[in-house]
Structures are given as structure tokens and as C-alpha cells.
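Task card 7
Instruction: Convert sequence to C-alpha cells.
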Amino acid sequence: MSEVYRWATVLVGGLLVCAGVVRAQPASNAPTDPRDVVAEKMPFHIPYGAPISAQRAQMLLQAAVEEASRRGWALNIAVADSGGNLVAFLRMDGAQLASIAVAQHKARAAVKFRRPTKVFEDAIQKQDYKYVLTIDDVIASRGGIPLIEDGKLIGAIGCSGGTGAQDEVVCTAAAATINH
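Output:
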């Protein structure tokens, strides 16, 4: 009798699945993964503007050096134009050599992706979006800040040599002299 009962249960269960009474999917069509949500507007859709001039880039370097010096931090500071090209760079006395390329990379990434590099750090660290690591030219470390003037991206500043938070503080202070 137990064998008959077992086969009857399997048969009824199969019929319910075929009839659509039992569903493996949620009734809602809402995405369960936040990456699958389709946004109405493009994120970080800042138009590219004319490139920052060398003179203004030097002024940004000076503002960054003043902030870093005030705090006792030796950093590498890079300014890229709206095309991602290096316009100005300064290695403060005692700044670590490995951070030269990192500061430049942060500035380029902030221009290319039109967003602070902290966005990538957060995507990996806080949201566990490992796929971000597969995107060319990403640097998932804070300290790259876009430079926005009159609603247009004119370049970016990148700092490296301290902690990510230190790099970001100095870049943000310098960028505040331009960003509106």
C-alpha cells in the first residue's frame, strides 16, 4: 500500500506542476538582483567639456599640496584633462614611488567613467560586485575625483600614497576649488 501511495503522490505532484499550480518562480516579475533593475536615466551622465588648462591644473596641484601638507601627508597628485590625458603631476617629498602610477590611474579612471573611483571600491567591497574587476581601466580605490565646471567634465584629480580615505580627502578639497 505504501508503494501505491508513493506513486500516487508523485503522479499528483507531477500533474500540479504541469498545470502550473505549483510554481518555482516568484509571482512577481521584479528582478531579484539589483544589477538587473533597468534605470530610467543613465547614471553619471555628465557631458565631457573642454579640457582643463595646464595653469588651472597647476592650481589644483597647489590646493592638493596645501591640504596634504596641512595634514602631514606625503602624496602623489595627478590631474588629467577631459580626455584622460595627464596634464599635471607632482610627487611630494617622501611620497611612495608605487603611488605615482596609482595617482595617475585614479585621475584617468575618474575621467573615463565620469565618477569618483570610490564608486568602484564600494561596488566591490560593499556590494560584492566582483564583475567590476573585469572592466578595463577600472581602479577600485578611492582618491579619483571628477572635475565638473558648469555641468561639464573638464578633467579629474587623483591622489595616492595615503590610505584611500586620505587620498580622497585631499582630492575632494582640491576639486572643491572647481566643482560647482
